[in-house]
Amino acid sequence: xxxxxxxxxxxxxxxxxxxxxxxxxxxxxxxxxxxxxxxxxxxxxxxxxxxxxxxxxxxxxxxxxxxxxxxxxxxxxxxxxxxxxxxxxxxxxxxxxxxxxxxxxxxxxxxxxxxxxxxxxx
Amino acid sequence: xxxxxxxxxxxxxxxxxxxxxxxxxxxxxxxxxxxxxxxxxxxxxxxxxxxxxxxxxxxxxxxxxxxxxxxxxxxxxxxxxxxxxxxxxxxxxxxxxxxxxxxxxxxxxxxxxxxxxxxxxxxxxxxxxxxxxxxxxxxxxxxxxxxxxxxxxxxxxxxxxxxxxxxxxxxxxxxxxxxxxxxxxxxxxxxxxxxxxxxxxxxxxxxxxxxxxxxxxxxxxxxxxxxxxxxxxxxxxxxxxxxxxxxxxxxxxxxxxxxxxxxxxxxxxxxxxxxxxxxxxxxxxxxxxxxxxxxx
Lengths: 122, 296
Description:
The complex is a heterodimer. Chain A is built from 4 helices and 5 strands. Chain A is an alpha/beta fold. Chain A has a 5-stranded mixed sheet with strand order 1-2-3-4-5. In chain A, a hairpin with a 2-residue loop joins strand 1 and strand 2 (11-15). Chain B has 2 domains: 11-164, Histidine kinase N-terminal domain (Globin-like, Orthogonal Bundle); 172-283, STAS domain (Transcription Regulator spoIIAA). Chain A binds chain B through residues 79, 81, 83-84, 86-87, 89-91, 95-96, 101-104, 107, and chain B through 196-197, 200-201, 203-204, 207, 231-232, 234-241.
């Protein structure tokens, strides 16, 4: 299933709505990294609220997305990780190091708004 | 005794047991008052059931005696089982101990056995037959009552453990988006898991940005639990909340260093006050004293 990517002002928002195959995740990665450049986006939010499981491939790919997006000049926030999923992830050593995570979409947007505003003043 | 006679005897053994038990029940029914008195006297002598008054012992003894005889009569234990559970529910809160309950049931067994001795002592063969019928039934009753009592106790203990667990890990909101989690006492792996669960749920429910875990009340923890704490901090970060751990004792600090915690991931402050101040600073609060404090 393809993940819809919505453009919202300077941000791209990808909401994962059901369990994804590895191929779907790779496709999401490529689409996001491509579109960040095309729309000159400043931030990317990936909403994983609907996921009950995050395996090592998904986690690794999302981390890759964050790093690639950073190289293309934007920041990534992953939002909506469920409590059970979070604990299962850290148990497997999947800690999404170096990636910003927030409670939900609202918090993610709030984080990006602050960061981008402070960057504008710099 | 000839062989034919023996065969006939084993064939009718269960019938004769039933007949003997019927006779026994009739005997116990006839001598109810006297045997009950004797039993209560022995209970008092043995200083059992000291938590109960004389009248209560009398009332309880009467119903135990009757259900006992009924169990012998019907040769089923269901009614007695229900009664034993009901009895346990009533007397456990009053501090009646296991040895007392087992003691009184065994006393009743002995009192009844004595009365059988004195009734049948003239005919030792008949006495043996009566005891053969009586003993297994009496033992089954004693076991039923004792097991019922212990089971009820275990149920209460489980219930209380549950209550203690519920109480022992409160997640409190002290400011908008700031939770504190005071932990007191020993942390075993089970409690650690529960703690994590409550913390992560609390973060989600209160939309917390910061959590202060205060472990001043925890004297020591082993490497497993310390590791678990580190994982919890990581998991909270995945939910978008930062965790500040306060009040680490020297022993716990040593444990954490020994398991090689990455201190960059773990935010620690000396005491709870410092932790809350740090959290407020991170949330953008500033606490200033008002010019004229209210008189205390």
